[in-house]
Specification:
8 helices, globular, single chain, Aminopeptidase, alpha+beta
């Protein structure tokens, strides 16, 4: 008989164990939950509110983590990581999310990946209905990714990456300039840079002839899963539609394949399918 207990997540002492748990249960289609760098990237980013992380819940069987229910950035959206063979706790996980992970207005969306059948069934039993879905793509390294860098641009050598230029590129690349210029805060970048499993040596930056960064692709290499977890990817608005993002991902492919990577994450945008990515990860959203 399984001896399963649940307890609150303690961010300072539990993170590394949760990271390893996510490594252990990883599947390329995320059928058991998100990959480990997904959670670490959120915890290390300034857009994520860590003050409510004690509301995340861990389930353990004989000292081993078998389930984790958590939010990514803010209360109001719940994710589920569940070890195969412990599907009986799915209803308890849904119940916890409905009580502890609602936002200040009482709203909650469940994010359930295709293949998380026990979690979906528990959500239906609890009165949730599927409201939306979309599919993220991955690039299979059995294929080749080889888009050339356009004339007038160059890759920045990894050991020469400049944090300020990186953050300016990301500020512009994610269309934040409408909020005003970048505020000059370098610490948010260094906080991410010094995450326990960060691999900034594999990041790719493209600069123009003036040395300004105009395209950026971050890499969280996860060798245990042969996963090249790409996050984030952005291009400064005036440099879009020039082939820079495709060239950046091609350079990333060239760097990661010799290390043993078998696949690289992307997104749902049609850009990815145009350069050879294939549908793999189905996100479904559930609400009451």
């Amino acid at each position: 008989m399984k001896n399963i207990i649940k307890r609150s997540f303690m961010i300072l002492s539990d993170f590394m164990a949760i990271y390893q748990f996510m490594i252990d249960i990883y599947e390329k289609d995320w059928r058991n939950g998100v990959p480990a760098p997904f959670f670490e990237y959120a915890l290390s980013s300034d857009w994520s509110d860590k003050t409510m992380s004690h509301r995340n819940m861990i389930w353990e069987a004989d000292g081993d983590i078998v389930g984790f229910c958590f939010y990514e950035s803010q209360l109001g959206k719940a994710f589920f990581s569940l070890r195969s063979g412990y599907e009986e706790i799915a209803s308890e996980m849904i119940e916890h999310a409905a009580k502890a992970l609602i936002d200040k207005d009482g709203n909650l969306k469940l994010i359930i990946f295709k293949g998380q059948d026990a979690v979906a069934e528990a959500a239906i039993d609890a009165g949730f209905e599927k409201t939306d879905e979309y599919v993220d793509m991955i690039f299979d390294f059995n294929k080749q990714l080889d888009y050339k860098l356009p004339k007038g641009f160059s890759f920045v050598e990894p050991h020469k990456l400049d944090m300020a230029k990186t953050l300016i590129c990301c500020w512009k690349g994610f269309d934040h300039e409408k909020e005003g210029p970048w505020d000059g805060d370098l610490d948010c970048g260094y906080h991410l840079y010094y995450s326990p499993h960060a691999t900034p040596q594999y990041d790719v930056a493209i600069q123009n002839e003036d040395g300004d960064y105009v395209c950026w692709a971050g890499m969280w290499w996860t060798p245990q899963n042969h996963l090249a977890y790409m996050e984030p990817l952005c291009t400064v608005p005036e440099y879009r539609k020039k082939g820079l993002a495709a060239a950046a991902l091609s350079e990333m492919y060239r760097r990661m394949k010799p290390l043993g990577a078998t696949h690289m994450t992307g997104g749902s945008n049609s850009f990815y399918s145009k350069i050879g990515y294939e549908p793999m990860i189905t996100w479904t959203y559930w609400s009451k």
